[in-house]
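TICKET: design request
STATUS: open
ATTACHED STRUCTURE:
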């Protein structure tokens, strides 16, 4: 009897020891893994994700996260197995499809990367389409397909205007093509959405310099020089740009003086009409730009089909009571836009009201387009 009591006591002690050994569930280790991944401690991330997979082998997000950690340490074979395991558990787990596409892109297997990314984009419920379009763009750039590179890069910025990597690459692509105005518009859109930094301001100053807008270029240079938080290298670059601006302004002034003095010295009246025509032409151009202007709106959705965009628009009108909604097509993407605001502050007020209804969006600035809603202020939801 005493022997039986000892055996039972031993079994009970082992059970307690086992509970003390691993009292946490898979979610605990998964959360630890996510925290480690965010701070780039990939060794700890892999350990915690692996423990989570052993406790919850039927959770696709655990396998997907393990694959992401393996991919960051260049363990591509292990990463691919983990992503495939996530899809084996759940065929509709599109996040793993996206990561497989990114993995094949890193391995320079572009055909397989294109296949996986396009399959991810075919899922209309997938919320990270902007990332898929971004990597499609990078693949087409590597394949020297400039048109598809720009097209997919623009789609990445349309689907998520707050996607900084795509916005910066799009601005750089425009600058390489010599389209400084379009590049500047990208940076202005970032600033209007609250994404600003000394580096962005320096890039804007350089673009204004190339466009001959020396006054505004000096304005941004001054902001960088006076910003104590700006890095020393950026401030040095700002001083160098300021020197070039001052040189160009001096050259422009000398040219203007010579142009104005030339008819007086030689007394050739034929030159006078030419001199007066130039400023008149430039004034007309400035006026047309002013009339063209910008419209501040809130983007509430972006869809690959017009029917889905219409369905979302009708749902917002029916269930929330939102009015002044329009659909604008751009590069095969149908955007649902709300309002026509006089300032970003006004748009932010309406955006805050929408959030109370769990409706989220982005503030965007668009060129004036024919599909302008009827006159009047947008109504509150």
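STATUS: resolved
RESOLUTION: sequence designed for all positions
ATTACHED SEQUENCE:
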């Amino acid at each position: 009897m005493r022997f039986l009591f000892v055996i039972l006591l031993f079994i009970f002690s082992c059970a307690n020891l086992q509970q003390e050994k691993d009292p946490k569930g898979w979610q605990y280790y998964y959360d630890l893994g996510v925290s480690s991944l965010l701070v780039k401690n990939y060794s700890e991330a892999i350990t915690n994700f692996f423990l989570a997979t052993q406790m919850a082998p039927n959770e696709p997000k655990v396998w997907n996260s393990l694959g992401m950690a393996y991919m960051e340490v260049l363990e591509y074979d292990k990463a691919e197995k983990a992503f495939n395991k996530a899809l084996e558990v759940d065929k509709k787990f599109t996040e793993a499809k996206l990561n497989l596409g990114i993995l094949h892109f890193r391995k320079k297997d572009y055909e397989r990367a294109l296949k996986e990314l396009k399959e991810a984009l075919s899922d209309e419920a997938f919320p990270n389409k902007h990332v898929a379009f971004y990597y499609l763009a990078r693949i087409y750039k590597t394949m020297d397909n400039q048109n598809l590179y720009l097209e997919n890069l623009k789609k990445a910025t349309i689907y998520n205007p707050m996607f900084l990597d795509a916005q910066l690459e799009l601005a750089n692509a425009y600058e390489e093509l010599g389209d400084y105005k379009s590049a500047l518009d990208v940076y202005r859109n970032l600033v209007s959405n609250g994404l600003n930094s000394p580096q962005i301001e320096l890039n804007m100053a350089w673009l204004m310099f190339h466009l001959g807008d020396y006054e505004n270029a000096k304005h941004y240079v001054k902001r960088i020089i006076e910003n104590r938080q700006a890095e020393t290298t950026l401030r040095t670059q700002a001083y160098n740009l300021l020197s070039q601006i001052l040189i160009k302004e001096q050259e422009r002034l000398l040219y203007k003086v010579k142009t104005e003095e030339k008819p007086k010295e030689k007394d050739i009246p034929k030159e006078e009409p030419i001199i007066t025509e130039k400023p008149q032409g430039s004034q007309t151009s400035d006026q047309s730009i002013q009339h063209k202007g910008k419209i501040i709106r809130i983007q509430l959705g972006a869809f690959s089909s017009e029917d889905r965009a219409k369905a979302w628009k009708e749902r917002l009108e029916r269930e929330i009571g939102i009015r002044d909604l329009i659909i604008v097509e751009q590069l095969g993407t149908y955007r649902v836009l709300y309002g026509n605001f006089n300032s970003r502050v006004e748009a932010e007020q309406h955006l805050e009201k929408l959030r109370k209804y769990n409706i989220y969006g982005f503030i965007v600035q668009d060129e004036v387009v024919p599909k302008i809603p009827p006159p009047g202020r947008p109504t509150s939801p």
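CLOSING REMARK: Strands lie at 294-303, 325-330, 333-341, 362-367. The radius of gyration is 29 Å.
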